[in-house]
Amino acid sequence: MSQLIGDGARVLPEKSHGWFRDWFRKVWKVRGGGLYALGFAVSFIIFEVGSLGDDILGIGSLFNGQAVDFVIQFFIDSLTNTIKAFVWPVYVVQAAPPWGALGLGLAYLGFSKFLKPPIDRWLFPEDSTG
Questions:
Q1: Looking at residues 29-33, what average pLDDT do you find?
Q2: At 66, is the pLDDT very low, low, confident or very high (cuts 50, 70, 90)?
Q3: How far apart are CA 86 and CA 94, in angstroms?
Q4: What is the pTM of this model?
Q5: Dihedral through CA 46, CA 123, CA 110, CA 100, nearest 10?
Q6: CA–CA distance from 10 to each of 14, 32, 64, 109, 125 (Å)?
Q7: Most buried among 16, 38, 74, 92, by the most CB within 10 A?
Q8: How many Cβ atoms sit within 10 Å of the Cβ of residue 51?
Q9: Angle formed by the axes of helices 35-57 and 67-86, nearest 10°
């Protein structure tokens, strides 16, 4: 049984396809394919999940005749989350001064060696031969 779980854990990242990988590939290319791109994508997802939770709690407004307001607020929240994701390094630095800045610097130094290669293999499997 543990062999099945172990094999599944290894295979899942290689097999994950679909809209998330396509979206992440676009973000990766547009944002330069580095630590900034990864931080943008992760922070955007975190902000969107938080907003989605708030939207689910406010879904009752759809039944009160406020459907248009609900949709407009959803798009405004998404735009706000995009803007917040652009400045994600500020959130990291402010999280726990001075440790946030130190962590960001260490992440910058170690990103190309430890995180970029597996992310590139996942996003662009056609480029990784072997």
A1: 88
A2: confident
A3: 15
A4: 0.74
A5: -10
A6: 7, 27, 47, 27, 15
A7: 38
A8: 17
A9: 160
